[in-house]
Amino acid sequence: MSSAIEQMTKNANWGALAKATELKKRIFFVLGALLVYRLGTYIPVPGIDPRAWGSFFEQSEGGILGMFNMFAGGALQRMTIFTLGILPYISASIIMQLATAMFPSLEALKKEGESGRMKINQYTRYLTVLLATVQAWGVAVGMESATSSMGPIVPDPGTFFRISVVITLVGGTVFLMWLGEQITARGIGNGISLIIFAGIVAGLPTAIASLLQLNMEKGGNFLELALLTVIIVATIGFIVFMERAQRRVIVQYPKRQVGNKMYGGDSNHLPLKLNTAGVIPPIFASSLLLLPVTLAGLGGIEGEGIVSDISRYLAHGQPLYMLVYGALIAFFAFFYTAIVFNPSENAENLKKYGGFIPGIRPGKHTADYLDYVLTRITVIGAAYLVLICLLPEILISQYNMPFYFGGTSLLIVVTVTMDTVAQIHSHLIAHQYEGLIKKSKLGGRGGKKRR
After folding, report:
1. pLDDT tens digit string along 12-68?
2. What confidence tens digit (pLDDT) does each residue in 366-398 have?
3. How is 329-363 classified by DSSP, letter by letter?
4. Region for 189 from its dihedrals, namely left if φ exceeds 0, alpha if ψ lies in -120 to 50, beta otherwise
5. 234 exposure class (CB count in 10 Å sphere: 0-12, 13-18, 19+)
6. Residue 49 and residue 153 in contact, taking contact as beta carbons nearer than 8 Å
């Protein structure tokens, strides 16, 4: 009986999907935009020797460049127009969110509504261009000074080459920023997250093939391969469980009399997710770690001095890298949660509509209680993010696993998939309600005609 009901539900969902014209347009738009992004990761930057760059990248892909290449969707390995990826925009968003929390003028601008949000987005775009310009210049200078076993990477270095690289890479980042905003507005899901998701998923087949080849080179230890598969599947299951976990705060609404009838008296709950920040903390932490190390590695300043020491100690798999990475994830988990959920604002909304938490007085006491509960569950959420992101990093550094099987990449893939599927279901439910409303209106008109 239950299986028959599930089958009927699936058939109803697929039938609704076939009828939901707007949803189909949104899905096709997302697929087309991601196809454009993937094509752009194969358009090379002018003025470099691809074979020399490929040889140079193979010598250092196990380090920080490998992780940068994963977030860029393989564009760094091919040195294409999307080499910088979307990370400059993410770094600019981090800086603007920190500035909004620190400067009252920006905080007031944020509270102005849609106009204020548009201004902050505009400032974020300007900052993205500035950061991308600095990183692109560092990439150009670094490629001029780097050599590989097949000779120099740049056959004709000079000012013209640097300017052309800066224009190409900055243009690629700005295009991805625009493409991400278009996906968010006209597609399904968060555009920036989907671009990173597409880059990671596109590299999975190659990563699986390289993992199998590495296992065969070690003598074909299938027990070790099976254990690794179990670890990956268990990690995915744990991520799904933790992302769905929530703390439900009971909210009671008092009864009120209107005329001769009684209304209200219902109880509801306020869901507080265990991981309110989602996948944002690992992405923010990775982008901040990649920024200085990339400038040191690609900027041609790997010599003696403090920059070289920082670059070496923050290399992938080093204890300092693990410590800083975990600390940044925990910090952004609390920081982004504080931005997304405001206890005082939610307490005021409950008070406005007559809702209250049993045993807690409305107003400031409710805000303090929500802040107390949210802080406790965020501690668990931050610990979960740190655990998921750091344990696979140890496997990567110790056993030379591809970055695609790391905790950060798995977390991004699973979370973005869950978020996109949830939004598709929301569109389907909204379409079903629209169909019911239309049918009720038609039925009402038919009834009037029959009368």
Report:
1. 455 555 556 778 888 899 999 999 999 999 999 988 888 888 888 777 655 566 677
2. 888 888 888 899 999 999 999 888 877 776 666
3. HHHHHHHHHHHH--HHHHHHHHHHTT-B-TTS-TT
4. left
5. exposed
6. yes
- Find all residues with CB under 8 Å of 291, minimum gap 6, and list them: 87, 91, 131, 135
CB 408 within 8 A of CB 343: no
What is the separation of C-alpha 163 from the centre of its chain, rounded to a whole number of angstroms?
31
CA separation for the pair 93, 127 (Å, rounded): 9
CA distance 124 to 319: 33
pTM of the model: 0.76
DSSP, collapsed to helix, strand or coil, labels residue 270 as: strand
- Token pair of 296, please? 């040191």
Instruction: Give pLDDT < 50 ranges for the chain.
Output: 1-2, 4-5, 8-9, 12, 299-305, 449-451
User: At CA 70, angle to CA 423 and CA 318, rounded to 5?
Assistant: 120
Burial category of 155 from C-beta neighbours within 10 Å (exposed 0-12, middle 13-18, buried 19 and up): exposed
Cα distance from N-terminal residue to C-terminal residue, the chain = 42
Listed in sequence order, the residues at least 6 apart from 193 whose beta carbon sits closer than 8 Å to its beta carbon are 279, 283, 412, 415, 416, 419
- Domains belonging to the chain, first-starting first, are 2-450 (1.10.3370.10)
- C-alpha distances in Å from residue 40, one per residue of 48, 308, 362, 436: 17, 33, 54, 43
Alpha helices for 189-221 (secondary structure H): 191-217
Please state, in angstroms and as integers, the Cα–Cα distance from residue 299 to each residue in 293, 328, 360, following that order. 9, 24, 57
Pair of tokens at residue 118? 């548009």
> Six-digit token pair at 352?
């406005």
**DSSP annotation of 80:** B
Distance (Å, rounded) from C-alpha 137 to C-alpha 155?
A: 17
Contacts 24+ apart (CB under 8 A), 350-358: 350/251, 350/270, 353/253, 354/253, 354/254, 354/256, 354/264, 355/251, 355/252, 355/253, 355/268, 356/251, 356/252, 356/254, 357/249, 357/250, 357/251, 357/252, 358/250, 358/252
Element holding 246 (H helix, E strand): strand 246-252
The dihedral through the CA atoms of 211, 215, 220, 222 has a sign that is: negative
d(CA 86, CA 76): 12
